[in-house]
Amino acid sequence: MKTLDAVSDAHQPYAPHLLVNQLSLEAGREWTPRLSGWTLIQVTSGSGYWMEEQSRQELPTGSVLLTSGNVPGRLLASRLDSVGLHYFNVMPERLMGLFTQGEHDFLKDAALRRELACQLLPPTHPVAAKMKKLCLEPTRDGLLFRLELLELLAEAFGGAMDRPAPHELQLDVRERLEAFLSETPPAALLELSFEELARIIHCTPRHLSRVFCDLVGMSFRAKRAELRLARARELLATSQSKVVDVAMKSGYKSLSLFNRMFTRRHGISPGGWRQKNGDLKAATHRRNGRSRPAAN
Q1: Distance between CA atoms of 57 and 26, rounded to whole angstroms?
Q2: Collapsing DSSP states into helix, strand and coil, what is residue 181?
Q3: What is the pLDDT of residues 208-247, one digit of tens each?
Q4: Which of 21, 63, 23 is nearest to 42 (CA)?
Q5: Which are the contacts of 96, defined by CB distance < 8 A and separation ≥ 6?
Q6: CB crowding 167-180: b at 16 or more within 10 Å, else e
Q7: What's the burial of 36, exposed, middle or buried (CB within 10 Å: 0-12/13-18/19+)?
Q8: Over the stretch 68-105, which tens digit does the pLDDT of each residue have?
Q9: Please, are residues 281 and 237 in contact by the beta-carbon 8 Å criterion?
Q10: pTM of the full predicted structure?
């Protein structure tokens, strides 16, 4: 049996995608896509089969196959007739500014779920009818055309990419955030950006912002400011570091900003706070030192 591999540079950094390709397979020949991301394949003439290790799906004329690059399959032309195909590829990792984090997470999750990672849409499906019309366009390029192809991908999932997370998933986000905060020391949280936290929790920044405020009682930005000031107070009270060094170690980019934020929060300058609280702490250490029994 003859096999034909897709001629694609999909794994190359600047290879084009969202581009309609055309392919014809002679009777009995196979095609292995080997494309990353997501691929929509429409049978434009003849018929064929989508073959996987232990399954086989018939692909009648006009049908569309939506498949992830994670799915190890191949397309087989009927032994009686050749098959004509149109297909295009979407690589979400190249569209970071267009997809939200939640949509990226949805596509990553869908690629791991067999019922979503390989779907056959019949010729009567709206996506099949729309793709057939698009592929008949005399000029298949341009921004508006590529946006229409991208719209086909979204519609192939039945609008699931646009639906808000179900209540159970929202609870999962809260539980994941609560577990993360309980296990993460404040110093580590100070090193994270909000976008990095959203990726760790597997949530959109917008939704995470609401959950964070509800759980912590303040915004992520306000919490980080509170943690910075807590670190500064500890350093002022327990070290001999200069105030400017305390500011830098606490995450402030300038001494003037540190002085302003500290004074606004505590009603006293960092130096004044150290003189008051550092002396008390030193006196406590001296008393504790005198009370210890002498070493033998």
Answers
A1: 19
A2: helix
A3: 899 999 999 999 999 999 999 999 998 998 888 899 999 9
A4: 63
A5: 104
A6: eeeeeebbebbeee
A7: buried
A8: 988 889 999 999 889 999 999 999 888 877 887 778 87
A9: yes
A10: 0.55
Which helix or strand (DSSP H or E) is residue 43 part of?
strand 38-45
> What's the mean pLDDT when you consider all of the chain?
82
Mean pLDDT confidence for 246-256: 89
Q: What is the pLDDT of residue 61?
A: 95
Q: Is 87 helix (H, G, I), strand (E, B) or coil?
A: strand
Structure tokens at 267: 């009603």
Backbone angles phi, psi at 93, to 5 degrees: -65, -15
Q: Which two tokens stand for residue 242?
A: 């200069």
Q: For residue 47, give the 3-state DSSP assignment.
A: coil
HSE-CB at 278 with a 13 A cutoff on CA atoms is 17
Distance CA 236, CA 95 (A): 46
Give the model confidence (pLDDT) of 104-147 as tens digits: 878 887 887 778 889 999 999 999 999 999 988 888 888 899 99
Residue 14 has phi, psi (to 5 degrees) of -120, 20
